[in-house]
Design a protein that fits this description.
Strand order of the largest sheet: 2-1-3-4-5
Order of helices and strands: HHHHHHHHEEHEHEE
Helix content: 40-55%
CATH superfamily of the largest domain: Cytidine Deaminase, domain 2
Shape: elongated
Distance between the termini: 87 Å
CATH architecture of the largest domain: 3-Layer(aba) Sandwich
Number of domains: 2
CATH class of the largest domain: Alpha Beta
Largest sheet: 5 strands, mixed
Radius of gyration: 22 Å
Length: about 240
């Protein structure tokens, strides 16, 4: 190919141009990410940076969608602004998905809690502690991640757990966290934290309805095992 022919080749179409011409559905994951990132780091394009983001999460969009800003900032070229943009986009997508389901999910059993939380934290390689706010019909009002990393009393402080419930005038909550090791049996620390939160809830007149721990069943990696402290009577506080 001659130099003149090379010079006359059209420049590659950028993701934003492809989106305007073909629509968002025609774009690959890396192209959609590149649009959100807008720019790459020095010497690399936004598409290259998008590839690095996908590689960081091993191509699992579910893991990417549950990441916090600090996780994105571990990637070279992702600063605070880009990290916040990605987290906001993922949260909008999650809310859209929930809105499309119609009526809010009803969590009236440990199994329904496990199923609801499965898609949120089943792929997490770290322990995550979540609080689910319920209305009087056990419908989900909202769900918040409180901590990321090993669960201890300093991280799962009562003020963080109950803050949103107080703001929303919510009278019942469900606690949920995962054990990446796969065994959902509660540790002594899990039990101590739960009992302290149950006591705090009694003072605030907010019922801790259950604490469900998620883990994978070794016999069937695709099946999520769970342990319900409520079902095992471990939420009762003796006088």
């Amino acid at each position: 190919m001659t130099e003149r022919m090379i010079m006359e080749l059209p420049a590659p179409e950028r993701p934003r141009e492809r989106l305007m011409r073909l629509g968002a559905m025609a774009l690959s994951n890396r192209e959609l990410l590149a649009i959100l990132l807008r720019t790459g780091k020095q010497g690399d394009s936004a598409l290259t940076l998008a590839d690095q983001v996908l590689q960081h999460f091993e191509g699992a969009l579910s893991r990417l969608a549950s990441a916090i800003p600090e996780e994105f900032q571990q990637i070279s070229g992702i600063g605070e602004a880009k990290a916040i943009t990605l987290v906001a986009a993922c949260e909008l997508a999650r809310r859209l998905m929930e809105a499309s389901l119609g009526e809010r999910p009803v969590l009236n059993s440990p199994g329904s809690v496990a199923q609801y939380m499965r898609t949120r934290i089943q792929h997490s390689s770290q322990e995550e502690f979540h609080v689910i706010l319920l209305d009087t019909r056990n419908q989900v009002l909202r769900e918040d991640r409180i901590t990321l990393g090993l669960l201890d009393r300093s991280l799962a402080h009562a003020r963080e757990v109950f803050r949103r419930a107080i703001q929303c005038a919510c009278q019942r909550i469900v606690l949920c966290h995962n054990h990446p090791s796969g065994n959902p049996q509660p540790s002594p620390e899990d039990l101590n934290i739960t009992r302290s939160l149950v006591l705090a809830g009694q003072i605030l007149d907010i019922q801790v309805q259950d604490h469900v721990i998620l883990g994978r069943m070794e016999a069937d990696p695709l099946h999520i095992g769970y342990y319900s402290m409520g079902a095992h009577g471990e939420l009762r506080i003796e006088e």
